[in-house]
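Today's session is about reading a structure prediction critically. Students often jump straight to the picture, but the first step is always the sequence itself: look for stretches that repeat, for charged clusters, for runs of hydrophobic residues. Only then move on to the predicted structure, which in these notes is written as discrete structure tokens rather than atom positions. Here is the chain we will use throughout the hour.
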Amino acid sequence: MEPLGAKLRRQRRRLGLTLDELAGRAMISKPYLSLIETGRVPNPPSDEKLRRLEQTLGFGVGELVTQAHLQRTPQDVRAVLGKLLERKKGRATPLVEGEVDDLSGILRELVDRSSQGAERIMGNAVGFASAAVPVINRASAGYPKDFLDLSYPARVADQYVGCPEISDKDAFAARVHGDSMTPKYREGDIVIFAPSLAARNGDDCFVRFADGQTTFMRIFFETDGEAPVVRLQPRNEKYRPMMVRSQELAGMYRAAFRYQRVDGE
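Below is the predicted structure for this chain, in token form.
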């Protein structure tokens, strides 16, 4: 099957669109689109971004999402799923592109079962559901960057941190990447963010932009004339603050706890 990035670039060029034009129509940053097209992202984009690209570029509904789901699946697992599908169809011929939806359906069913099983395990562990917070990726302490949540089902991850005082079921953790929040936060620190806590002036927050990029900074609610804006203020004085309009932000999640190594001084 044609790589996802090459497929997007071919269709964009066929429609006569530049990267700038596609970025504007699909509400995805141009640098990230370039990385996707050249195959330099470790994981496919989120389903939300892919659906916008499907609509903008005229792909069939679910075409890109299905291919991304398959790409996220390890090669050996894809081979097993292919054999399952061949048995289901009662034949031993290779899989063709038109049957990808069937294979993806099997994959989604397996993922759903796995997710439900993980949630049952979490729920059965005494206090685990509220005390274990998934570490989903890293928080950029610096210029906004595209954020990958590793495509895990909700509250499921490879790594967790224990925090008995957290009862927010949507809490998540991320590793600090960059130095714009020093000296309070260092590279590699794990910060737990609680969406249930209201973000206030001066809070350190995981900030998600409407285009999917994220950053980790202090927030201050201000106005530019009559328009509400948010000042994103680094703690490191060598970085300048950013002023963004409120409508450019999709969420601000307050930092609640920090895990830090003590032997790195």
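Discussion point for the tutorial: The longest strand covers residues 213-224.
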